[in-house]
Every structure is written in C-alpha cells, then in structure tokens.
C-alpha cells in the first residue's frame, strides 16, 4: 500500500495494515488528548485537525483505497478531500441548545458558534461519500452515539430480551446490524423535506404526525451535522415521525410566524402533541446526540388514546357511535409508543383506548373474549365487537406501524359498509312506520342542516318509547299532506326520530337547562339551520301531538334559540 507514504504514519500511530477497530481506538484516544477545549498547548489545534483528517480517510475503506491509488480520498488526483462547506469532511460540536458551544474545524481554523459555557458530552461527524461516524464521551459501546437496546426499551417497555408486550425480539439481530449501517451512512440531507408555508399548513398543522424540524439559513455552519442527527433519529423512529427543514432565508415570513428564526446556529424543533390534540412547536435544547433527540421526539408523540380501566369502563354500549373504536390490551403501565403513533395517524377516524391488564385470566379480559396478549379489540360504530388481533408480535417499529395500519384500514372499510347498510335499514324502517333512534352517527343525516325541521321524541323508559313511537308513526302518516305547506316544498321537510333521554341528557340540556329531567315523554321540534326549537310537554295523545306538529308546520308557534348546539355522545 502507498497510503502511509502519503499520510504521516505517526498521525494516528497505527500500522499501515491496521484494522478498523485499531484505527477507531487510536483516533478516540488522540482526539481526547488534543481536543482544543482540553489541550491549550501550541500546535494542539493543528494536530487535532490532522488526526481528524487521517481518521476520515483511514476509517473509510473506499476513501482509503482511493487515497492509496490516487492520492485523494475522492478518487481524483490533484484535488483536496471533502466537500464544499464541510471543512475537509469533519465537523465538531459540544453540548447543545442554549449554553452550548459549537466549533467547526478545517482549513479555516476553529470558529465559535454556540452560546456560553459548554457540555461535557461531545460528538464528531465525518462527512463525505463514504459515510459518517460519530463518537461520544457517554456513548457507551456504540460507535454512533446510541445503544440499539434503547430502541426497544423506549418503544415497547423493554429491551431486546423483553418478550412480553410485543412478542419475541430474538430475531432482531439483522435489524440491529442494518440499523447501525444505515445510521453510519448518514445520507440524511436527501430525505429531509424542505418545508414552505403551504407544506406546513397542509401536511404538518394538526395532521396527527410528529415532525422533527430544523430551522436554518445557508450561511450558518453546522447544518450538515444537525441533518445527520435528524437522519439517525428518523431511522430509529421510522414511520413514527417525519423530518423537515425550513430555510429561514427563503421562508422568512414562515419563520417569523412560527418564531423559529435561528441565531448563530441552526435550531431544532418538534411539532408536538404532548399537551393537547392541537399540535405546537417545542424547541429541543439538549445535547445534540441521536439518543437524546430521539427520546425528546418520543416524548412528544401523540397521546390521543384514552387510558382506561376495564373494570370501570363500559365499552359494550349498544349506542351507535360516530367512529369505530379500538382498544389495546397489554401488560404495560404506559401507553406503548406504537399505539400512540397510530392514535395520531388515525385521529378523527377511530376512537382509541388502551388498558393495562395482568394476564388473560382477568375476568374483564375473559369477558371480551381475548385469549392471548397483547391484543386489539374493535367495535364497529353499531356496537358490534371484533377481536382484531391477539398475541401480537412485531419485528420493529416501522413494520409494526405498517402491519397494524393495514389492520385498521380493513376494519374502517368494514365499518363503512356496516354504517351504509345500517342507514339504508333505518330509512326503510322509517318509511314503514318504525322510527329511527337518534345517535351520533346518524344525526347529520336525520337532523342535520339539510333538514328544515326535526321532530325529536324523547323517552325515559321502554313503555314511554313504545307510546311515542306509536303516536309519531301515526301522526307522520297523517301529516304527509301537510308537508307541502312548508316553504321548502320538500317531502323531506320533516324528520321524525326517537331519543333515549336517559343516555343523552346533555343533548337535551342544549335546549333547556334542566334537560327536561322531570318529564317522561318530551317532543322537541328543532330547526338545525336556524338553531331554534320549540318543545311540547303536554298530554301525549294523538290529537294533541298532531295539533302540535300542525302548528309547527303552519308557523303558529314561537321558536326559541337553543342554549348551545346540541351534540350527541
């Protein structure tokens, strides 16, 4: 080899045939010895630059081969190694956020970039076509700043040895190897989405997905290192987060509106759902390591799943719901990361629950028909229960999200068919004299803005329900000829429905403060478009009910504005 003739063999103090492990150990030792923050002696800075340059080439087999053959790491004789703006292919940072110090080392020397003070942890990033590597003073055995076992302890409540919550991870060795390889390559800038005002509004704002965002200007140094960290985090949380960058030079108004303009260094933010269903930007101010940024992102994932106790929560309700419901049963004390991610991706499409259970012998679990954990139980909007999956086993976060997304998509499709069939049956029953029961899922169709007047019969017992249904069915048939008197001229001017007043007390409270609690039968004529109503609480006879509805049709009664918009549970 000619490599050691071109590089001083004493720079790293290794033999020309040294292994990658030997090169790495030598570099780590010398970088600590000559680091400018620790070594103030004359020539230390220059020595440190030489060490970094040597390692950048020796640690990459392709660069090493090119240097040996051509005298240049890029494989082109006569040109310096590195890329424009990367200062010979290496960048150095200490700490992170406010109070951090950042430096870049290269032909131009050291430049201070951060705040004041500094952090004890530090990382190195080495660029170039052959990939990048980082080492940290607290990074443990990993050469790139995080422990692969930490992935599982964060996602599933245990490490690779944990065989509880989401199955056996013993087959994960191939993932571990490929994950390390992907992280070390750090070709991240290509996968980071450039964000403008329109993209932020349509793809990020309240869409249920957590984003890791970088704000920068082209003149700031360090962007490449930030992007490499973002690339590692995106790989660790694949499918759980997206990454993007905002150029505050070209997107100045967006940066001003979001208050994310950078100072002397780029800034890192997470679009968070930690506090509420509405997302907000939270700045990351910790040490700039993949492990710490990943933890920060994970902490800000959606929390739309309701944590419940099976012993104190009734999921067997026969009421028709607006959305299908899904519940995760696991042995974990906290909502698993996968379920939190899914609750964001399917926000406003499903109602999510999760519960901690000890084992399948729990009476509440047996009652649901679950025979293995973890399991997902689903309820269609008509209350029909399904065991969607039990004894769930996953390989990694990315595949788990994809597999469970397919499961939820299929269940959602089934729910649409059931809801469509149920609506058709309701309409048929209505024409045959059987009145539909008003619920959250059919409210818009029966008493929405397209319905001029909705006659709601509220009952508090099965006996009163039978009486109301009989009366309204008869009156609706007698009143058919009168429907033409309504200004709209539509035969659908009136809609007759029943309401279970015992379960929908808050709905009736939108009309009258007490919600007509003391009345067993109540008739409410509601005009959705105008937000007005009139109530009848007199004798429920065919004559009196017909007289009330006739006065409503003919405009002989005074309507009152509702206290608030009525909403069904």
TrEMBL record:
<dbReference type="InterPro" id="IPR001623">
    <property type="entry name" value="DnaJ_domain"/>
</dbReference>
<feature type="region of interest" description="Disordered">
    <location>
        <begin position="101"/>
        <end position="140"/>
    </location>
</feature>
<dbReference type="Pfam" id="PF00226">
    <property type="entry name" value="DnaJ"/>
</dbReference>
<feature type="domain" description="J">
    <location>
        <begin position="7"/>
        <end position="71"/>
    </location>
</feature>
<protein>
    <recommendedName>
        <fullName>J domain-containing protein</fullName>
    </recommendedName>
</protein>
<dbReference type="InterPro" id="IPR036869">
    <property type="entry name" value="J_dom_sf"/>
</dbReference>
<dbReference type="InterPro" id="IPR052842">
    <property type="entry name" value="ER_Co-chaperone"/>
</dbReference>
<feature type="compositionally biased region" description="Gly residues">
    <location>
        <begin position="101"/>
        <end position="118"/>
    </location>
</feature>
<dbReference type="InterPro" id="IPR036249">
    <property type="entry name" value="Thioredoxin-like_sf"/>
</dbReference>
<dbReference type="InterPro" id="IPR018253">
    <property type="entry name" value="DnaJ_domain_CS"/>
</dbReference>
<feature type="compositionally biased region" description="Gly residues">
    <location>
        <begin position="127"/>
        <end position="139"/>
    </location>
</feature>
